[in-house]
Amino acid sequence: MEDSQAKEQSIKHAPLSLKNLNQSTTDLSNMKILIIHTEWNKTIINNLLKFSILTLQSLNLKAENILIQSVPGSYELPWACNSVLSNPTMHKDIDAIIAMGVLIKGDTMHFEYIADSVSQKLMEVSIKHNKPIIFGVLTCLTEAQALIRSGLDPSSPSNHNHAIDWAKAAVDCALNSRRFAQDDLSSTHHHFLTAEDPSLVA
Question: Which reaction does it catalyse (predicted)?
Fold first, then answer.
């Protein structure tokens, strides 16, 4: 718990260092990111959701521009993303979506069927609507793996909240999408960090 709180404070008070980003000219105040999350594995989801929001706020997104919706399970994520992006107003307003869920393998083939279909359909929806959808679904063999990948096991050397990466990827892709729409492929533009930000290491 102390580790999680320290990590939260580091995100709140220390802006992320972004490689090759001109922070003086890149305005993210009007960027909107939608997070659609599942209801299963609530403890894990809540921590993923918390740190995705903290990371987006650290990147100077306004709180009112971080939109949150929920669906029952991962299987409903593609439908939800497609429904949102099929609405012309929402398609225009939203810059990127983070589809967030947790799948933990059980004793049947259910895990494989869901993981494969959800990943494929999210990619199809993203391409269909030409809108970035970040695959934020943890696909883990055990609950212990899910805890590590959601930053909830500070005793593990691999402990890291992947929602931090998803949030940064959403902003990165949203900015790239804006540039592509303006026929701007200049190599002088930013790319977000390719290495871990030390302040966010679990």
Answer: (2S)-2-hydroxy-3-oxobutyl phosphate + 5-amino-6-(D-ribitylamino)uracil = 6,7-dimethyl-8-(1-D-ribityl)lumazine + phosphate + 2 H2O + H(+)
142-201: per-residue pLDDT in tens?
999 999 999 999 999 999 999 999 999 999 999 999 988 887 776 544 554 444 454 444
Q: Is 106 helix (H, G, I), strand (E, B) or coil?
A: coil
Task: Work out the end-to-end distance of the chain between its first and last CA atoms, rounded to an integer number of angstroms.
Answer: 11
Name the superfamily (CATH) of residues 2-6+30-200.
Answer: Lumazine/riboflavin synthase (3.40.50.960)
Query: Active-site residue 110, yes or no?
Result: yes
Annotated catalytic residue, options 37, 110, 162, 191: 110
Of the candidates 194, 131, 179, the residue with the CA atom closest to the CA atom of residue 25: 179
